[in-house]
Write a structure and sequence with these properties.
Layout lengths: L1 H23 L76 E5 L17 E4 L5 E2 L4 E3 L4 E22 L2 E8 L6 E11 L4 E6 L6 E4 L7 E9 L1
Pfam families: C1q (PF00386), Collagen (PF01391)
Protein name: C1q and TNF related 9
Subcellular location: Secreted, Extracellular space, Extracellular matrix
Length: about 230
Amino acid sequence: MFTVALLLLLLVVRGVAQEEAQTKGCVCGYPGIPGDPGHNGTPGRDGRDGIRGEKGELGLPGPQGPKGDLGPTGPEGQKGEFGERGDKGEKGDAHVISKSAFSVGLTALTKLPVANAPIRFDKIIYNQQNHYDPQTGRFTCSAAGAYYFAYHITVFSRNVKVVLVKNGAKIIHTTDNYQSSEDQAAGGAVLHLEVGDKVWLQVAGGELFNGLFADEDDDTTFSGFLIFTA
């Protein structure tokens, strides 16, 4: 065992001595020129993501973009609560409906009236607005508009010729000849009247044409009423 170890030690010492002898006998020359660069190596693998940086400052607002399309109508909202009651408004002008009408007749006392004067009909059938005056025999207009006037005459003992007059102007004439028995005559017209105008019926042609008769069984009447205001 000892012998083997000794042999190994001798071999090591000999090898070292040979290396020193070779080194001492070598003469160093000048450095050579640099060699050509080697080829690029293959790219390395991507490195790991770095740490997330801090949030940057808010940038300036950009220009206004174009107007977008109108969106669909939303659902109907809930009904709101009732508001407070408003103040009472001013009272408006009431629409007044004008009324004017009359209907009158002769009696045994006023039959066979005088000629060329308003006939005074003293039998009041209707004169609620008092627009007809039995004292003068004239109707006076109180509301401008269109009026209808009509008369119905019982003719007896004499001929009849009457005229409807407006403010002194003769509008229409009616004539009937008496022939030994009672007869009937009538007339009517629509007139436009202004406030204050007067209308009446009168005998024309003298006493020979005033055969307007009235008694308990026969009547002679004169009527008029407002159709519409102007």
